[in-house]
Every structure is written in structure tokens, then in C-alpha cells.
């Protein structure tokens, strides 16, 4: 008789059936494990709303986590009950969610962006220019495939962005030379990998079964490949993944410090700046919403407040004295 699978293995199986990313899998499994250990290794089927709220309160009060972190833990636990245990008692949808505080995004001026670029090493100039010039999220950048780049129409197709949505963004002509050089380097690396018996890349969802040879084609390769071949934690296959995002985060942070920009500058700051500068240039909010891939226009409206357009450019009474 086969051994009964461990509960966390069942969680991983359900997550993979739903085609969730490896990051979501790691986060959800981590929160569920912490929930079980917090309640002295009791089985989740024996617990309910009270135990969930005790755990979430512990995170907020004892661990002092942010509202977004607490809500991620809640999402993991709700997934566990609905998808793994396949129970949906009436209390599931009534669990109190932490209210996320409304924060204005940090935005750089155009001159600050230009100054920042002066301190970005040549090896990362293309990455940073695409983050700002296209309004990309960091993970959208590193996950770009060769076939997503269209020089003829000057566009980039962002596949499976936030909310699993595709969208198209502009490709600045000023990046063409750097991007073509990068793609040529990617092709060189791919050719070398094929000669060494590798060259396979991870394909989303079930495409590897539908198109068994597609994972070795150049079109599917990541534009920014990793420096080394690693073992896929899910399949156990050795292959080259996309570059790690931390190197870009570190580069931007160091460049901001050297440029003496006294703001918290991250890759996402460049996306905020992209949207704000488009708004400054007179582009309508709906166009910016589509370029950013926001589900609701209310999310995009935050940039009007950055420009004080939400207050219609009110002038302080101090100026009349």
C-alpha cells in the first residue's frame, strides 16, 4: 500500500494544477506551514475561522507585518481550505482582511531619471531603460522572451502579467541597438547550450506537452538569460532560466546612492515615474491604464494625486501674503 502523501505535498500539487508560479507556491506553502506550526501541528481540517484569525492577529501584533503580507497569508489559508481541503464553510468569505494603507508612490522627476542613468553601469543600461521607457514591472522584464520583441511595430508583448493578462507596450527606438545586441548575445549562449546538450527553457502551463520541441527553439528563450544552468526545482531538469532580479534591484539602489537622489529608488519607482511623466505629457488616463496593465482605472488615478491634479493645482494662501 502506497504511503499517504504529506499535506504540504498535496498543497504543492494543487498549486501546480492551477499553474501558479513557483514564487506563489513557495509563499503559500510557507504560510500554511507556519499556520500549522503556530497551532502546535494540528491538522488544518480540525481548525477554522477562530484559528485563522488568531494566526493573522499574531502576524499583525507580534510580528508587526504589513497589511499586504497579512493578506497574502490569508490568501494562502483560503486557498488551502477551498482547493486542498475542498471545503468552503460560510465563515471563509467573512474573515476580516487587513486594510492596506493608501500611499502615494515615490516618483522621480525627468531630470532625476536622467541623472540616475548616468550612474547605471553599461551592463544594466538596457534593463533600466526598459523599466522606465516601457513601464514594466521587474518580473515582467526578466521574463521577456525573444518572440515578445517586435522591432517592426516598436512594441513589446508582456505575457501573463499581473492578473495573468497580456498587454502590449511601446518599445522606445533609443533601445533598439542595445536590445538587438542583447538578443544576439542570447542567441550565442543558446547555440552554445545546444552544442553542450542543453538549450531547453521552461515553458508556461502545458505548452511543453502540446509543443514538445518548442522549449529548445530560440523564439522561446529568455531575452535576459541566467549566467548559469541550474536544476529546475519542480521538474529536476537542468536548464538556463532568466536572470535573477536581485542584481537589477541592487544596481538601481547603488546608482541612486551615487547620484545622491534622496528618495527610496527601486525598479518599481521607474514604473511610477513612467506613468506620471506620461500624465504630465498630456496622455489620457485610460491609455496609461492600458500600458500599465491595471485592472481598474482607480489604481491608475493615484498618479493624478502625485501631480496634485487631484486638488486641481491648488495654490497655497501663503503665496498671496
Automatic annotation (TrEMBL):
Matches recorded under Pfam families: Phage_int_SAM_4, Phage_integrase
Protein name: Integron integrase
Tyr recombinase domain mapped to chain residues: 103-316
UniProt cross-references to InterPro entries, sorted A to Z: CB (IPR044068), DNA_brk_join_enz (IPR011010), Integrase-like_cat_sf (IPR013762), Integrase_catalytic (IPR002104), Integrase_integron-type (IPR011946), Integrase_recombinase_N (IPR010998), Integrase_SAM-like_N (IPR004107), Tyrosine_recombinase_XerCD (IPR050090)
UniProt keyword terms in alphabetical order: DNA integration, DNA recombination, DNA-binding
Lineage, highest ranks first: Bacteria, Pseudomonadati, Pseudomonadota, Gammaproteobacteria, Thiotrichales
Keyword rRNA-binding listed: no
SUPFAM superfamilies per record: DNA breaking-rejoining enzymes
Listed CDD domains: INT_IntI_C
Species assigned in the record: Thiomicrorhabdus lithotrophica
Signal peptide per UniProt: none
Annotated family: Belongs to the 'phage' integrase family.
Residue ranges occupied by any Core-binding (CB) domain in the UniProt entry: 5-85
